[in-house]
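Let's practice the habit of predicting before peeking. Look at the sequence and jot down your guess about where helices and strands might fall. Then scroll down.
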Amino acid sequence: MIVDTMHIQFKIGVDKTDSLNSANFLTEEIDLYLSDAQEEFIEQQAYGNNPKKSYLEETQQNVKNLQSITRNANITTFLNNADNKPNGTFVELPDDYRHAIEEDITVQYLDCNNQIQTVQIEVIALTHDEYNNSIRSPFSKPNLNKVYRLPFGRINGKEYFELIINPNHTLVTYHLRYLKNPEKIDKAQILVPPGLPGTAEGDLTDTSYREIIRVAVRNALGDIESARTKESIERLTELQ
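Done guessing? Here is the structure:
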């Protein structure tokens, strides 16, 4: 949906609900309400924080709402340093990474005939507490059926995961399907194509943006009502 259209629909929604009594919002304020509503919408769709408690791929509508910000990455460069856990390897995430949907790795190893074998193995995301419990058990160590992935943090401004693999395996590729961070809704952003006003578009579908606008209008009206309530209380206080 074109950003200009989002702004127009936001203003109509606020004025219609508030009987044309609302103060005019600055362009930057509308951008902020819409961007915040976009974040709220994605959280609801991806993580089950919605009225139906449905998750990313639990319903077809959830998939459709977020398919335009779904990306694939096949990562083949890795980092090893003194911070690694035993048999751990750091993997750098894409700059626009937001949330993992599905992941596995390709590894190579020598079989009993001294032949190189290449296989894909499921990646299981663990917290550090879960990792500590699993790694102590000989039956839960990484093998040809599973490897572990731990959150790590940032190195030189880049976000990393840590993969824990079997010591007899060589990591070849980390395959990641993920949700990317959408562009902030910004009416002043670079337009596509350059120089044509009113053509800046968001990352999601029109259906998604209609819901985002509804959420933005709701939040704006809540702030207006909160400000009026505060003003009324201040006036009553002054009269006492």
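How did you do? The two ends are 51 Å apart (CA to CA).
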